[in-house]
Write a structure and sequence with these properties.
Layout lengths: L2 H12 L5 H7 L4 H8 L4 H11 L3 H10 L1 H20 L10 H11 L13 H9 L21 E4 L14 E4 L1 H6 L6 H19 L9 H5 L2
Antiparallel strand pairs: 1-2
Helix pairs in contact: 2-3, 3-4, 4-5, 6-7
This protein binds zinc ion.
Length: 221
Amino acid sequence: MTDLEKKYFDTVFIERICTYAQIAEKIEISAEKLKEMYAKNGGIDKCIADQIFNIDIIEYLNLKDSMSTDKVTIDEIYQKYSNKKSSANEGEFQFHDWKEFYGWYIEQIKNGETCCYCGVNQSKIKISLDGVNNLSTPYVRLKRKTRGVSLEIERVDTSDGHNLYSVENCRLACHVCNNAKSDFITAQEFEPIARGIYNFWKEKVGVQDIIFPTEVYKTFK
Ligand SMILES: [Zn+2]
């Protein structure tokens, strides 16, 4: 990553700078003044190019374009963050901010997008959903085609007072495990069920390279 790409990543993806008010907070010009300067003269992109990056608008747009693949992935993760943050009960969402959540998420998927309980790899489920081998899988019966495409944020310890969305307590789970692990089942108790789900993926869906995980069962004894 070049320095410019790194700056784009930090500013646009992590800080999520996208309004005049946010830019105004970083420089000594008011949001009103920025709006006046850019609203009819290149808009927010030009404002970011000038005021944050100090580069030409064409160069900025090229940079933006070159980062667009990353944007899709990061926006998906951001969507998970904001959905959970807004749907969690009061006091349950303990990730400090998006930056912490993003760091946690990247750590979770560093060895592949796998379910913490059964080990299924997300990209293998996608292949099934995309139809490569879905005629021989239960996925033809899936009614809501959007479910299962993405790993879900799972709170592992659900006991009273511990049922939190936090770096320590959250992992990623496939939707089958997520559905099956009710609040009253501990990670330890869930292990034999997860082994069954592991077999389901392997035998019914035909996911071959799946490794049964151990981390979650060791951590949450
Ligand atoms: Zn699973």
